[in-house]
Amino acid sequence: MEIATYSYIFVDMELTPQLIDHLAHLSRLNFNDIEKEAIRSDLQKMVSFVEKLSALDTTGITPILHMGNRSNVLREDTVEGSISTQEALKNAPQANDTFFRVPKVIRK
Question: 95 and 89 in contact (C-beta within 8 Å)?
Answer without folding.
Answer: yes
